[in-house]
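Example A, followed by Example B.
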Amino acid sequence: MIRKAEILLVLLAGCMIIGTSCFAAETRTITDIAGNQVILPVNVTKAVNIDPFSNQFLYIMGADRDLIATTFGPSNKAVLNVTEPYLMSLPSVGHKDNLNSEEVLKLKPDLVITSIDYPKAMTISEQIGVPFLLLDFENPENLTRSIHILGEVFGKEKEAEEYISYYENKMKTIEKDVSAVSAKKPIYFAQKKPMQTLGDDYYEADLAKIAGADNVAEGISGGDNIVSMDQIYTWNPEAIILLPYCSANVSEILADPAWQSLPAVQNKQVYRMPKYLLTWEMPGPESVLGAMWIEKTLYPDKVSYDFNQEIKDFYQKFYHLKLTDDDVDAILQDRAPATMMESMASM
């Protein structure tokens, strides 16, 4: 017995001398949105993010300090420099379409956060020996599930559930407001170009449905679909929503003879979706405001809340920003050409 004790003491002393642990680090298993079992440290403190939407959810739940590299995508860098200076100071290792695996390895992260539409994720994860966590924000159900997963990963379950509860309650309010609408308005989303649109599998289509409208591009998938003018006339939308990064502005569409015979143009039902930190139709925290804006724009008489106050309350609650009436007006009245085309093109 004495001999065994001496051996154990020698082993422990050796571990202390070389500064390492002789015992395996504690781990846990998280199930990501794709059903993968991801083995992570009990405390994740060195995460790399290559999904721009995750950034904002991590920030509002207070887990941003556990990132060591990240990506932003189409965002208002001027505002983010004020609200999220730590995140803006982090290096980038690329994004899902252009990941620098060597830089990831140099950082020795606990995990890499990415989206489910990154088909090479699991292969690269195995190649470099770093766990990848797959998330999906392209429909409301998966968005809330992904927020829940992030909360579980970073020990921010309470904060994650706080946003999920807010999001679900606001969406229910919107759905209740428009529940008496006899027929949903058909709307056309203009993507990066006026004749480029997105399909029903995109988050924007879900926001439209919640707010009592239908994306006219039914049965089409993907976000970069080039369509003809004849097709748009066949769809015959009652409203046209230019996404914030669309190359055309409202006045150009209203003045273009090619669009003149559409009911949406004749009735001046052409609008640009607002943006602030991110664009409001993208699956980030602000998208709840995007759903409210669609309802307010299409069915102003159905709205049961003070929309301008909701905007102020949202940014105060989740971003600690006190917006003035002038700030809100500037967001809602933005009719200038898009300023985020370059960042959109790089995604």
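Example B, a separate protein, is given below in the same form.
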Amino acid sequence: MNSLELKQHGIKIGDGEKLVVMAGLNVLEDEGLAQEVCAELKAICADLDLPYIFKASWDKANRSSITSYRGPGMEKGLPMLAAVKAKHGVPVVTDLHEAAQAEAVAEIAEVVQLPAFLVRQTDLVVATARAVAAQGGWLHAKKAQFLAPWDCANIISKSREAAPDVQIILCDRGTSFGYNNLVVDMLGIPEMKKLGVPVTMDATHAVQLPGADPRTAGASTGGRRDGVSVLAKSAIAAGANGVFLEFHPRPDEALCDAPSCLPLSDAKELLTTLRDIHGVVS
């Protein structure tokens, strides 16, 4: 596997490189909160000598209910991400949902994420791969909940057919297991790495219980917050090159996926442990 690099930030990902941390908010709530979370996580990662990329979505388009909070939208959200970048000097990762959004998102985000449910949508994959390649960024493709790890070869080939030079990372976020449940097969991490690309673990979304939040009688997604650290540590031990995590200063008040979100106060201890595990297995 060849390492990938964000040259403008000197960040590399791949075997033999430092553990890459993509972490932040599930969804943008306001700029002040984004600045606060980025500042804290950047400081922690700097202290631990870990490459850091700030994460936040500007739109969560696949909510269980039409009344669920989706975010500020692209017109307001992308400037928020740009403001975080300008103040803290870190790259950002965010997602998109439509092909027409690709160029605008790739101009702001060094790492553009294909959502799991949309990772087989050809028009979206093609547009995103071309936009990301034009900017020299990374395409962060989440393995769909319904795909086997080796089926991700089709995501890679489709992206490279559209943009031969695109830099691709695969991300595991669990597999559907019956109703309202996800599981993570850690053997999938090395299987995806066999495809020749770096692999990350989205430990936050992997603990979701889709459509099973008892607080809303199934009108939102539940989660098992205590499982995030278990999955993150296991994935790094299995060889993951990066970790994808979501934090909030007051997780129970988070406007999206609160049951899966970690307290910001837990970030340093968890990231320290993940760094140490990575140091042993890398």
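On Example B: Helices lie at 31-48, 74-88, 102-108, 122-135, 153-162, 188-193, 227-237, 267-281.
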